[in-house]
Amino acid sequence: MTATVPAAVGERSGGLPYRLVATDLDGTLLRSDDSVSPRTREALAAATAAGAAHIVVTGRAVPWTQHILDDLGYRGLAVCGQGAQVYDAGERRLLTSVTLDRQLAGVALAKIEAEVGPLYLAASRDGLDGEVLVGPGYALTGSLPATPLTDASDLWSAPLNKIYVQHPTLSDDELAEAAQRTAGGFVTVTMAGEGIVELLPLGLSKATGLSLAARRLGLKAADTLAFGDMPNDIPMFAWSAHGVAMANAHDDLKAVADEVTASHEEDGIAVVLERLLG
Predict the structure, then answer these.
(1) How far apart are CA 59 and CA 206, in angstroms?
(2) How remote is the C-alpha of 104 from its chain's centroid?
(3) Does the pTM of the predicted model rise above 0.85?
(4) Residue 144: CB partners within 8 Å, gap ≥ 6?
(5) For 24-61, what is each residue's pLDDT tens digit?
(6) Sheet containing strand 188-193, strands side by side
(7) 210-to-57, 80, 220 alpha-carbon distances in Å
């Protein structure tokens, strides 16, 4: 599957009523083993052949996304880091990158910890090769590359796209709610998956990055069909013409979705695209 912009982008053909298909990765396009099924690959290829552009929109920063895009043969634009980065996969370069105000982030962390107690921390550094720093106690899911954070001062020594927070006893929903209540005026708080509560630059969301990427393709919100599974996809759904939640999605996303499809394990993206393509 390639993600180059098709020659016919901007024209509706083949029965597909959207010119842009935006897909989250984890829990949406990717199955639990990080693979994309042949059926879903074929459905996305059919959508691009019908004149649509496909854009990956993920919470992962570029260094954690590149290997997946390479496996897909993806050559188009990707929105990474919860909207912080617009990445040209074909040219392997960043087109835009938004960083976290580290002073505001420090204030936000202090306010959250004053409310709920000490947090376990990780952070994503900016850039194509930005490291993910993981502090003591932070439980990193999967086998993605990370660098141990042994000196707390190193957290602030280079530009960051985001900070990850975990709590020893609070659930993800409880932690995200507390963080939003106490620090929402300093950072954007979002939940991107199990154990993944993030602090982002204030005002940043997947919708921010997707709107920038779409503009580069001459497309807009009214052209967009979006797929996702977690609360961090809510702004993308609000921006897009039609939002589709996976069966495995968080209840908060299902509540605002235009429809719910099959799970990421059951080709939910393909189910919708095949129906629209007739």
Answers:
(1) 8
(2) 22
(3) yes
(4) 64, 132
(5) 999 999 999 999 999 999 999 999 999 999 999 999 99
(6) 147-148, 132-134, 120-125, 160-166, 196-200, 188-193
(7) 7, 9, 9
